[in-house]
């Protein structure tokens, strides 16, 4: 469809809102109304006009203090009437609804924030309650972070094979060249961790959490994984560390030797991610394991002594149905991990997934809504939502939500998502995020994305880390 943007600067916001209603459609944005199905304009007033087959409608409103929000509501109302679909997050397109709610509650109070979300942002009652629950849980974790607190993130950007939905900078070791670089990458990573630890020590920073992510860290051999974990142990002061996570992720990479290596390190939390318990759907997305392997890996982790396990599921995978998703979620609940994180599939251009036709995307969006509705009801029985975010191009613009048993909330997830303290990051594709505690200033230091760049330009990467010290001298 063609979207006209006339005499205003809200192009990105209007296009993003239209995509929620028309998943998979090619949206052409122009500054001329000729031949456009939807025209958004600002002149003597705000106007939104629709001219679809068998549907014509125009809404106008006086200019106001927030023309963008007013125009968004008008687009929402017209497209809701045209499609019969009322997006549950209303006109809210941001990735952190709970963060917005926390700041709005500070300004308007709880009652004022609820009114703003429901009446101005058009957020549904159910999603408002979800945001409210998450923000309450996040506040407790955020308030525990002190001015000199930080978290450490370590990236292992390798996987045994690439999932069709993946858009991360992650390399399949099926590629012989990528496999050959693993050992060299690990040696450089250990050096970066050591140097980062020295910087943190000199600045007097206080470590709150460690997260080893990827990719799939357990793509490494048990020996290499142990070497990385021991480097962390020997490079940073773990005396104040509240949580140490290793993303085991793919069940086809998990062995007793690797789990033992993790268990013998300071790590106390792991993820084992089925994504689905349907073998048919696993095959559709290129996961080279079965649901039986997921369960075997989970039980093995319990035998070795892990008492804090997360499992990820994804709503909206190709070939999945509301019924098969229910089966997957029910099975995950039966296994009884401490955390269950439910993601909504986000179709990115860098992924290889084929859900971009309007018809397929519309069906997938409808299914994803049913899946998340079921997840909310089922998980509420013994888990509580504690963190949440949204991604671009996710089905129906729905959310990803972490659910936890009491006392097992992943503090790193909250610290990272809500940007409440510094995250020092090591490895390919990792991004250090520096946070000035009082002023709220945030500054990022980007590592090279690809392992080959990471290795070849390693000296430059280390030089960039000097900015960490400069930042703290400026803002603390």
Structure notes:
- This protein has 476 residues and is α/β, with parallel strands linked by helices.
- It folds into 3 domains: 2-83, no CATH class; 97-141, no CATH class; 142-435, Alpha-Beta Horseshoe (pyruvate-formate lyase- activating enzyme), CATH 3.80.30.
- 43% of the residues lie in helices and 21% in strands.
- It contains 16 helices and 18 strands.
- A 9-stranded mixed β-sheet has the order 14-15-13-12-11-10-9-6-16, with helices on both faces.
- Helix 3 (97-120) packs antiparallel against helix 4.
- The mean pLDDT is 93.
Instruction: Supply the CATH architecture of the largest domain.
Output: Alpha-Beta Horseshoe
Distance between the termini: 51 Å
Structural class: alpha/beta
Number of strands: 18
Mass-distribution shape:
globular
Main pleated-sheet profile: 9 strands, mixed
Share of residues in helices: 40-55%
Quote the average pLDDT: 93
Name the poorly predicted regions: none
- Spatial strand arrangement across the major sheet: 14-15-13-12-11-10-9-6-16
Beta content: 15-25%
CATH topology of the largest domain: pyruvate-formate lyase- activating enzyme
CATH-defined superfamily of the largest domain: tm_1862 like domain
How many domain regions? Answer: 3
CATH first level of the largest domain: Alpha Beta
């Amino acid at each position: 469809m063609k979207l006209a943007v006339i005499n205003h600067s809200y192009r990105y916001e209007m296009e993003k809102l239209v995509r929620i209603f028309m998943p998979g459609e090619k949206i052409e944005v122009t500054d001329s109304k000729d031949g456009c199905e939807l025209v958004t304009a600002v002149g003597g007033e705000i106007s939104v006009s629709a001219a679809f087959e068998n549907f014509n409608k125009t809404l106008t409103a006086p200019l106001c203090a927030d023309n963008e929000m007013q125009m968004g509501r008008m687009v929402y109302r017209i497209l809701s009437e045209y499609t019969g679909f009322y997006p549950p997050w209303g006109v809210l397109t941001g990735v952190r609804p709970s963060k917005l709610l926390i700041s709005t509650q500070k300004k308007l109070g709880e009652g004022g924030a609820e009114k703003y979300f429901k009446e101005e942002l058009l957020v549904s009652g159910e999603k408002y309650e979800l945001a409210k629950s998450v923000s309450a849980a996040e506040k407790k974790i955020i308030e525990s972070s002190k001015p000199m607190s930080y978290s450490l993130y370590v990236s292992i950007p390798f996987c045994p094979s690439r999932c069709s939905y993946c858009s991360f900078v992650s390399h399949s070791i099926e590629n012989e060249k990528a496999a050959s670089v693993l050992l060299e990458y690990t040696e450089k990573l250990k050096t970066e961790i050591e140097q980062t630890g020295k910087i943190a020590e000199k600045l007097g920073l206080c470590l709150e959490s460690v997260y080893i992510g990827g990719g799939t860290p357990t793509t490494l051999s048990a020996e290499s994984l142990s070497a990385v974990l021991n480097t962390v142990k020997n490079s940073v002061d773990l005396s104040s560390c509240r949580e140490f996570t290793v993303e085991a992720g793919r069940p086809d990479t998990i062995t007793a030797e690797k789990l033992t290596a993790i268990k013998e390190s300071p790590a106390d939390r792991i993820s084992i991610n089925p994504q689905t318990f349907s073998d048919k759907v696993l095959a559709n997305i290129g996961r080279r394991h079965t649901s039986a392997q997921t369960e075997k890996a989970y039980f093995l982790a319990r035998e070795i002594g892990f008492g804090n396990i997360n499992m990820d599921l994804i709503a909206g995978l190709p070939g999945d149905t509301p019924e098969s998703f229910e089966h997957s979620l029910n099975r995950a609940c039966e296994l009884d991990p401490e955390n269950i994180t439910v993601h909504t599939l986000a179709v990115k251009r860098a992924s290889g997934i084929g859900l971009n036709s309007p018809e397929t995307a519309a069906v997938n969006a409808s299914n994803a809504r049913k899946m998340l509705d079921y997840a909310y009801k089922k998980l509420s029985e013994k888990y509580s939502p504690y963190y949440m975010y949204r991604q671009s191009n996710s089905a129906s613009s729905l959310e990803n939500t972490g659910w936890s048993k009491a006392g097992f909330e992943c503090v790193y997830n909250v610290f990272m998502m809500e940007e409440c303290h510094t995250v020092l990051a090591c490895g390919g594709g990792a991004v250090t995020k520096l946070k000035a505690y009082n002023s709220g200033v945030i500054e990022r230091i980007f590592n090279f994305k690809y392992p080959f760049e990471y290795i070849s330009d390693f000296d430059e990467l280390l030089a960039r880390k000097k900015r960490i010290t400069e930042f703290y001298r400026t803002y603390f």
